Amino acid sequence: MAATEVLQLLAPDGSAASEELPAELDPQRLVGWYRNMVLLRSFDRRALNLQRQGRIYFYAPASGQEAAQIGSAAALQDGDWMFPTYREAGACYQRGLSLQALADQLFGNARDLTKGRQMPNHFACAALRIVSISSPIATQIPQAAGCAIAQKIKRERAATLCYFGDGATSEGDFHAGMNFAGVFRAPCVFFCQNNQWAITVPVSRQTGSESIAIKAKAYGFEGYRVDGNDILAVYTSVKQALDKARAGGGPTLIEALTYRMGPHSTSDDPRRYRSESEVAEWERRDPIVRFERWLRSRGWLDDATVAAIERETAAEVEQAIRSAEAVDAPPPQSLFEDLYAEPTPRLREQQRELLGLIERGVVERITRTPLFG
Amino acid sequence: MPVMNYIQALNSALHNEMERDPRVVVFGEDVGRAGGVFRVTDGLQSRFGEERCFDTPLCEQGIVGAAIGMALNGLKPVAEIQFMDYILPAYDQIANELATIRYRSGGQFSAPVVVRTPACGGIHGGHYHSQSTESIFTHVPGIHVVMPSDPYDAKGLLIQAIRSEDPVLFLEPKKLYRSARAEVPEEPYTIPFGQAKVLREGTDCTVVAWGVMVHVCKEAVEQAARKGIECELIDPRTLAPLDEEAILESVRKTGRLVIVHEARRNTGFGAEIAALVAEKAILHLEAPIRRVTGFDVHCPFTLDPYFLPDAPRVLLAIEETVGF
Question: Given an 8 Å threshold on Cβ–Cβ distance, is B141 in contact with A339?
Answer without folding.
Answer: yes
